[in-house]
Every structure is written in C-alpha cells, then in structure tokens.
C-alpha cells in the first residue's frame, strides 16, 4: 500500500503548473463516442487513474484510444458493444457518463449501476429522467440499467430537480444526436459543463447556453472527431493556492483561471490571503495572520464541495472559530475524524463543522478517506509539527497528477512511499514511479507514456 509522507514546517515558494481538469476530461472522453467519423485529439489530458478507468470502459465498447504525453487520440468510428464493463463502472461513478452518448449513437446502452460512494448516496434519477423524457425506455435489473430507444431520441424540455453536473452532461450528450431541440432547465453551470459544450460544438453539435441555468441543444444527424484542449483543473489549482496559504508561503499557480475560482478566491481574500491573478495564473502570498471565515458549499458559482476539505485544513490554522456547512453531499465530513488525529479541534453538528482556529496540528498517521480528504491530509501535514503519514493514496491518485512531486518542487518536505507495488495500468504506474523516489529533486511528470 502506498503512502505519502509529509514533514511540516516548510514555507512553499516558486511556481506550480496545474494539470488538465479531471472533471472536464472524463465527460470529454465519453462524448467522443458521438463522433462516428474521424478522430478526436484531446490535449492536456491529465495522466490520472480515473482517466485510465474511463479509457478501459471506452475500449470495452470498441473505441480506440492512444496516448502520447498528455494527448489522447480517440477513434470511435466503430462501436462494437453497448455493454459497459462492471468492474470499471463500479470503480468510478463518472463511467456512467457513457450512457447518454451510447444511447443516442446506438439506440441502446447497458451500464452497471454506479452505486453510492463514500461521500453520499449519489443517485442517478435525474440522468434517467432526462433520457426518459427524450423517449428512452429504461429498465433496471440485476445491477444493470438498460436504456433503449426505437429510432432516434427526441428533443424534450427537462427541468432538473437539482443542478446535477453529471445529469446535465449526460443529457447534453444524449441530446446532441437527438431529433429536435432539448432544453435543460436548472442545469449545472460549472466550468466543466462549458468545456464539454465547446467540445460538442467542435464535433459538429449545436449547444447554446452552457454556463447558464438553461442549456439548449439542437440535435444534429451526425458528429465527427475534433481537436480539444481540456481546461485547467480548478480544484487542483485551489489546492495549491491553499498549500501556499497554509505554509505562509508565496506561490504562482500557473494555469489557474480566476473566473473559475471566484468563490475560492473570495474566501481566501476574506481570510487575509493576498491573491494576484494575471492572464497565465494566480500569485498567492501571505503576509499577515489569517482569520477564520464561514463557508457553505453550493453548486457553481457557489463554493465548490470539492474544495471543502482543503479549506477546512486552512481554517484550522487561522484565527477564531469558523463554520463549514456542506450542502451538496450528505456525508462529506469523513476527513474530520482524520484531521482530529492530527490534533484538530472540530465539532460536527448535522451538516456543519465548527472549527477552532489556531489548532496546534501535530503529525500523525491518517487516511485519505476520499480524494479531497486525501488532499486535506497532505495540506494539514504541511502545517503540522513533525511527520504525517497519509495512507489511502489510491484515492488521491484519482484526481491529482504527481501531488508529492509538485509540492516537493515548491520546497515541501514530502515523498511517496510505494511499500508494495500496486498493479496499475502502465501509463499511470510510470507517472507515479516518477513521484515515488525520495524528495526533493524529481523529474516533472510529463504525462502518459506512449501506449
Ligand atoms: C466527475 C465529476 O464531474 N464529479 C463531480 C460532479 O459529480 P456528480 O456529477 O456525481 O455530482 P452531481 O452534481 O450530480 O451531484 C450533486 C448533488 O445532486 C444529487 N443528485 C445527482 C444526480 C441525480 O441524478 N440525482 C441527485 O439527487 C447528488 O446526490 C448530489 O447531492 O459534481 C460534484 C458536485 O460539484 C463534484 O463533487 C464531483 O467532483
Ligand atoms: C467527488 C469527486 O469526484 P467523483 O465525482 O469522480 O467521485 C471529486 O473530484 O472530488
């Protein structure tokens, strides 16, 4: 089992480059199923475990994917199967994003139920409601969801009960090849939705309104492969901004987009962090004691739930009491117990966590209970006295490219320990091997090895 070991106390300084966004590249890869001619070329694809998992699903459907550096070439001219493999879908919820494109391209799809996961139950009712409104027949059985349609899906007006990111994406993709126009109301407005719409339009789709609460998709008869560059990962960027703040350091986060990070920037400024964005990134520095703030997670443009755990780590070392309220997922406080193992003073009352500032964090053994919890453990470790050992690194590998390596380059005392080599796809294994040697001079990870 791999571990990341952090010794607290170093002020971070220098420049860190943000990788392509996990939550943008996954729907973009799934959307490639819509291209019945030509090849897609996806640039800035982060070499992450989740990208490998969705690639596994795509290959099982007959799609060809070739990697070179951080570029993926995808050819979906021949779809040979509409059945997604159980193991890959169970491993990662976002695999369910192949449902919409498969159904609309082939008239049928059979996908294992993605199930719940640690942070909440995460139902898919809004995805299915959308497909049904477009004329699909949905049946559930033996752990699978089957969707079928005679002829093409038909455009429909769909009001989402919650502005679900995944449902908005799945319905957008299904609607791209439907007959007529689909209107999604109460749509999610995340930057990743805009990125997907841009890709769909480059493929010949007709999507308007992405980034607002109402998205209109005029169906087209066919789509083709396209060239696309994935947006930078705003959650990774926010994590490095907090790493700078928690160590009282000074870091330039290259690739961070101010517009995507407004709710995070606003809270950091309220705390006293100096934020200076320019056209290529964001400079973060701290020159006064930080003060606690209250944070409530909400769909975009509210404060992102994917930054809640990292923000909690920062609030622990700030002055005063802060309240963090999680409204998006019902069980996203598992990091609280782990932070307590580092001497954090946090009380949970329902959906709120009350954080006592100026906690004297002490290094210890903690577990990454999910992806962002893992990031929070590393951040807390950077500020703690002594050594912090983070296990459950496979969660972190889902969403951060070379986190130990990037932090080491900023001056953190951190390294990755691969106690027993895990059986990994070779591209990811290589990327993680580069991170595994003891710090601090490590080669910058350049992406997927040639397949
Ligand atoms: C791969 C990806 O992009 N993952 C992101 C995506 O997940 P994901 O797309 O799964 O998240 P959703 O936006 O769908 O979920 C938001 C809320 O809606 C509820 N819901 C969702 C679908 C549905 O059919 N019914 C329903 O009730 C969920 O239980 C949750 O409470 O958005 C989340 C919210 O910003 C992020 O934390 C995840 O990192
Ligand atoms: C919850 C997350 O991802 P996923 O939806 O893939 O589980 C995340 O990125 O923090």
From TrEMBL:
Active-site residues from the entry: 117
Cellular component GO terms, alphabetical: cytoplasm
Catalytically driven reaction(s): phosphoenolpyruvate + UDP-N-acetyl-alpha-D-glucosamine = UDP-N-acetyl-3-O-(1-carboxyvinyl)-alpha-D-glucosamine + phosphate
Alphabetically ordered keywords of this record: Cell cycle, Cell division, Cell shape, Cell wall biogenesis/degradation, Cytoplasm, Peptidoglycan synthesis, Pyruvate, Transferase
SUPFAM superfamilies assigned: EPT/RTPC-like (SSF55205)
Localization of this protein: Cytoplasm
Positions bound to phosphoenolpyruvate: 22-23
Annotated ranges, domain Enolpyruvate transferase: 6-407
A Pfam family recorded for this sequence: EPSP_synthase
Signal sequence region: none
Enzyme class: transferase
Annotated GO MF terms: UDP-N-acetylglucosamine 1-carboxyvinyltransferase activity
Origin superkingdom: Bacteria
Protein name, per record: UDP-N-acetylglucosamine 1-carboxyvinyltransferase
The organism of origin for this protein: Xylanibacillus composti
């Amino acid at each position: 089992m791999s571990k990341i070991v952090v010794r607290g106390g170093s002020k971070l300084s220098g420049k860190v480059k943000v990788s392509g966004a996990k939550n943008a590249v996954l729907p973009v890869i799934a959307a490639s199923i819509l291209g019945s001619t030509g090849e897609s070329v996806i640039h800035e694809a982060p070499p992450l475990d989740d990208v490998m998992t969705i690639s596994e699903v795509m290959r099982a459907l007959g799609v060809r994917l070739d990697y070179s550096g951080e570029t993926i070439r995808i050819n979906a001219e021949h779809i040979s199967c509409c059945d997604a493999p159980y193991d890959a879908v169970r491993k990662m919820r976002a695999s369910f994003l192949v449902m919409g494109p498969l159904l609309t391209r082939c008239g049928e799809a059979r996908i294992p139920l993605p199930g719940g996961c640690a942070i909440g139950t995460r139902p898919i009712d809004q995805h299915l409601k959308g497909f049904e409104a477009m004329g699909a027949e949905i049946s559930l059985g033996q752990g699978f969801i089957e969707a079928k349609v005679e002829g093409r899906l038909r455009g429909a007006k769909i009001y989402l009960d919650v502005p679900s990111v995944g449902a908005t994406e799945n319905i957008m993709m299904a609607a791209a090849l439907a007959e007529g126009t689909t209107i999604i109301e109460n749509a999610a407005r995340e930057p990743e939705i805009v990125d997907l719409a841009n890709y769909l339009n480059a493929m010949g789709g007709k999507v308007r309104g992405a980034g607002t609460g109402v998205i209109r998709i005029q169906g087209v008869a066919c789509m083709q492969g396209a060239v696309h560059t994935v947006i930078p990962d705003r959650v990774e960027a926010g994590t490095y901004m907090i790493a700078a703040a928690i160590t009282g350091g000074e870091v330039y986060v290259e690739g961070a987009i101010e517009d995507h990070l407004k709710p995070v920037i606003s809270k950091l400024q309220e705390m006293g962090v100096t934020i200076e964005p320019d056209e290529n990134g964001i400079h973060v520095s701290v020159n006064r004691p930080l003060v606690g703030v209250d944070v409530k997670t909400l769909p975009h443009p509210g404060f992102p739930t994917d930054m809640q755990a990292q923000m909690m780590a920062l609030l622990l070392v700030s002055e005063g009491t802060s309240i963090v309220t999680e409204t998006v997922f019902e069980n996203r406080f598992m990091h609280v117990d782990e932070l307590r193992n580092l001497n954090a003073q946090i009380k949970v009352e329902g959906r709120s966590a009350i954080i006592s500032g100026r906690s004297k964090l002490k290094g210890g053994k903690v577990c990454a209970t999910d992806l962002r919890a893992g990031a929070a453990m590393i951040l807390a470790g950077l500020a703690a006295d002594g050594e912090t050992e983070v296990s459950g690194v496979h969660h972190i590998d889902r969403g951060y490219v070379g986190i130990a390596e990037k932090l080491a380059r900023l001056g953190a005392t951190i390294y990755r320990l691969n106690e027993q080599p895990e059986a990994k796809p070779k591209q990811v294994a290589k990327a993680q091997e580069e991170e595994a040697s003891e710090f601090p001079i490590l080669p910058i990870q350049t992406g997927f090895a040639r397949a």
